[in-house]
Amino acid sequence: MTDDQHQQRSKRPRAETDLYAPVKRFLQARGLEAKGEVRGCDVVAVSPCEPDLPIVVELKRAVTLAGVLQCVDRFAVTDLVYLAVPAAALPRSKNGGDGFRRLCRRLGLGLLAVAADGAVSALAEPLAARRSGRA
């Protein structure tokens, strides 16, 4: 392992809670009020203008099917759901493809990448998909 790889590995979040502060700052910069661990959701944010339209963010250390399915379950609460993962944990393809980002967009799921320095990038925004039978 090179020194650069070792340094990158040591900067990776050791726990999901390490992602909380950068994600909270990101949401606050968008004018939202964010709180952690609300009714089983890692982060819930609301706009003071639209308190009945919550945004849910699930924090994960790695990209897994279980994490994506947990986000899909959050659609029962709101149509505005993000998955936040360390940028280093995002799958990379040899062709420079962005298949995971495309999958999130297809599901209507937002995707946040948290860099080692705490910078957060929105790689996909959630689609507020209308589902029949929902009020």
Let me know the largest β-sheet.
Answer: 6 strands, mixed
Mean pLDDT: 83
| Count of β-strands | 6
Radius of gyration, in angstroms, nearest whole number = 15 Å
Strand order, main sheet: write it out.
Answer: 1-2-3-4-5-6
Stated plainly, the CATH topology is called Trna Endonuclease, Chain: A, domain 1
State the secondary-structure class. alpha/beta
Poorly predicted spans: 1-8, 129-135
Strand share of the residues?
Answer: 25-35%
Instruction: Give the tally of structural domains.
Output: 1
| Number of helical stretches of at least 4 residues | 4
In whole angstroms, the N-to-C terminal distance is 53 Å
List the helices and strands and how they pair.
Blueprint: H1 3-11, H2 17-29, E1 33-38, E2 41-47, E3 50-59, H3 65-74, E4 81-86, H4 99-107, E5 110-114, E6 120-124
Parallel strand pairs: 3-4, 4-5
Antiparallel strand pairs: 1-2, 2-3, 5-6
Would you write up a description of this structure?
By secondary structure, this protein is an alpha/beta fold. The protein has one domain (3-124): Trna Endonuclease, Chain: A, domain 1, CATH 3.40.1350. The chain has four helices and six strands. Strands 1-2-3-4-5-6 form a six-stranded mixed sheet, with helices on both faces. β1 and β2 (41-47) form a beta hairpin. The N and C termini lie far apart (53 Å). The model is unreliable at 1-8 and 129-135 (pLDDT under 50).
Question: Notable features of this structure?
Answer:
single chain; 135 residues; alpha/beta; Trna Endonuclease, Chain: A, domain 1; 6-stranded mixed sheet; 29% strand; disordered N terminus
